[in-house]
Amino acid sequence: KTLAAGKKPSTKVIDFFEKKASEVSPLVRKKLKIKGSEKLIVSQRIRLANKKPLILENHFFRKKFYEEMTKKDILGSVLDMHKKYGVKLSNMDETLRSIILKGTTAKLLDVPAETPGFLMHNIPCNEDKLLLYFAEVIYRGDLFEFHNRIGPIQTSRAKFSTITSDA
User: Which of 26, 63, 105, 138 has the most CB within a 10 Å radius?
Assistant: First the structure.
């Protein structure tokens, strides 16, 4: 979409490392429904357009699905990366809410503290309904708007018949 808008997309990787689930926040473990001994690949990256930061992403990939993942893999689309690892996405739960950007987050996105933003949590699963990763995606509120289209909408109505009795 960045290309379609006439801008040059790029990615800057801030962090890329492996950790046990017990070493990350309880929120991540809860969202992924995993035990503390499971290994995760943790990444933080910034998505840019014409070198301007737009999105800050924190991913917590379950290593067992992405054994050979490298820092280079997360320079591109995470959704495209699944093809490389033979991981088929079935569905994804997403939650979106407004937030206020502060501290390090505001600094990384190059906005003043107290700037509005959006926080999206993504949790995709595979065809076996196994959760693959947890993503915390933070968008600058001054550069994004979201549009959703839902459909097709079912408009059929229940049909009732009247039963009469001659009794």
Answer: 138
pTM of structure: 0.84
Q: Residues in the chain, how many?
A: 167
SS3 per residue for the chain: CCCCCCCCEEEEEEEEEEEEHHHCCHHHHHHHCCCCCCEEEEEEEEEEECCEEEEEEEEEEEHHHCCCCCHHHHHCCHHHHHHHHCCCEEEEEEEEEEEEECHHHHHHCCCCCCEEEEEEEEEEEECCCCECEEEEEEEECCCCCCCCCCCCCCCCCCCCCCCCCCC
Mean residue pLDDT of the chain comes to 88
Q: What is the pLDDT of residues 2-60, one digit of tens each?
A: 544 667 889 999 999 999 999 999 999 999 999 999 999 999 999 999 999 999 999 99
